[in-house]
Specification:
This protein has helices at 3-9, 38-44, 61-74, 85-96, 111-120, 136-142, 165-174, 224-238, 244-254, 257-276, 295-301, 316-326, 348-353, 360-370, 384-396, 400-416, and strands at residues 78-82, 102-106, 127-131, 147-153, 179-182, 200-204, 218-222, 281-285, 308-313, 331-332, 342-347, 373-378. It has two domains: 3-254, Aspartate Aminotransferase, domain 2 (3-Layer(aba) Sandwich); 257-416, Aspartate Aminotransferase, domain 1. The chain is α/β, with parallel strands linked by helices. The radius of gyration is 22 Å and the shape is globular. Bound molecules: pyridoxal-5'-phosphate (PLP).
Length: 417
């Protein structure tokens, strides 16, 4: 079946008992167990993803329906859902890594992930080499005898670097370790990491897959055995289970993923081209632009280039403050993949320079992309013309806060130093 059809019909058939055409929502925590015998042991030992339900932290019919559909969309054998993207990321690390192990990861990826690796995993004696994963040689050079995992985000949040999934999968497999790809920015509508050689795919379901900005969620997809191990060991023990209500919302959102991604991509390309020619904009990063350093690579592994844009403004932080103040259709907010267009500013000193796990080499490499600060735009589903008009008036605007904000920021920084 084609992607559009699978996103609506994939996985569980409609409710056999009532004939309801939509998946019912099962808000139940515990389940009547099978009678003593093989089915009971299969369920209690969480032997496979078909076993009878025991308790919702282990599995639930609404979650299972979503997991089956996600696995079909991602070309994966199996999927396990979590309460958030970060619950999925942490469950993966805590299942696959032990004290004394080493991980190679994208130096620029979602702040929660890089902070977990850089600040917390060392407490459990897990060491991380943060490298520019858009350069396969850096990944190769970082390999150690105790490397257990290569973890990449592509496109990477927030700078939109692209990593070559095929080449990194070959490097990982030669070293006998799995390649994990956080594909949140692309979604399975635009990029299929498993088909390109990755072993596990992670998504924050909170973003495009739900697509409506009303439910947190996360998922890990991959081979059945590995996914079941993550479920048995870390979904059950760390406990970050997805709420069935959120699963039901996400399943509903998934049905329009294909159409939404088309519109996000069309809007983003139009806006990126507009921004590239704007007098107040210094640099635009969008993988669909010919000027993006990894545009040619992006074309080989993405069918379109997503709804995320990063840009540097000629007026620096003052201009970013004004932009956030002046926008009317956009909202100044974090997150992404919602119908509503959002934008957020990352000052380099706060998000990069202040991070204790970045070396001067990391900082210098990242600065080449971010400059003093980067505006990240999540292009929504509104009319591209309205979004462009909104950005244009906001970029040309002047505000008092934009004028004095950078000096106040420096004073606040000195006070808290
Ligand atoms: C690429 C990426 N991965 C993971 C996460 C974490 O997801 P969640 O907010 O659902 O925990 C985010 C959140 O922004 C993200 O952008």
């Amino acid at each position: 079946m084609d992607f559009e059809t699978l996103s609506i019909h994939g996985g569980e058939p409609p409710d056999a008992e009532t004939g309801a055409v939509r998946q019912p929502l099962h808000m139940a925590v515990t389940y009547k167990l099978p009678p003593f015998g093989i089915k009971l042991f299969e369920a209690l030992n969480l032997e496979n993803d078909q076993a009878a339900h025991v308790y919702t932290r282990w599995s639930n019919p609404t979650l299972r329906a979503l997991e089956k559909r996600l696995a079909l969309l991602e070309d994966a054998e199996s999927a396990v859902t979590f309460a958030s993207g970060m619950a999925a990321v942490s469950a993966l690390f805590f299942t696959l890594l032990s004290g004394g192990d080493h991980v190679i990861a994208s130096e620029v990826c979602y702040a929660g992930t890089v902070e977990l690796l850089g600040q917390h995993m060392p407490r459990f004696a897990v060491q991380t080499s943060l490298v520019d994963t858009s350069d396969p040689d850096q990944v190769r050079r970082a390999l150690r005898p105790n490397t257990r995992l290569i973890y990449v985000e592509t496109p990477a949040n927030p700078v939109l670097r692209i990593a070559d999934i095929r080449t990194l999968a070959a490097i990982a497999h030669e070293a006998g370790v799995p390649l994990v790809v956080d594909s949140t920015f692309a979604t399975p509508a635009l990029q299929k990491p498993i088909a390109l050689g990755a072993d596990y795919v992670i998504h924050s379901l909170t973003k495009y897959l739900n697509g409506h900005g009303d439910a947190l969620g996360g998922v890990i997809l991959g081979k059945a055995e590995g996914v079941q191990r993550i479920r048995r060991e870390m979904l059950v023990h760390l406990g970050g289970a997805l709420s069935p209500f959120n699963a039901w919302l996400i399943q509903r959102g998934l049905e329009t993923l294909h159409m939404r991604m088309q519109k996000h991509c069309e809007n983003a390309l139009q806006i990126a081209r507009f921004l590239e020619n704007h007098p107040r904009v210094e640099r635009v990063f969008y993988p669909g632009l010919e000027s993006h350093p990894h545009h040619e690579l992006a074309k080989t592994q993405m069918s379109a280039f997503g709804g995320m844009i990063a840009l540097r403004l000629k007026g620096g932080m003052g201009a970013a403050i004004t932009l956030a103040e002046k926008v009317k259709v956009f909202t100044y907010a974090t997150s992404l993949g919602h119908p509503t267009s959002l934008l957020f500013y990352y000052p380099y000193d706060l998000y990069v320079d202040a991070m204790p796990f970045y070396t001067p080499t990391h900082k210098q490499r990242i600065r080449q992309w971010t400059g003093d600060g980067l505006v990240r735009i999540s292009v929504g589903l509104e009319s591209a013309d309205d979004l462009i008009a909104d950005l244009d008036q906001a970029l040309r605007g002047r505000t008092l806060k934009g004028l004095v904000g950078p000096a106040v920021y420096q004073m606040m920084k000195r006070k808290t130093a």
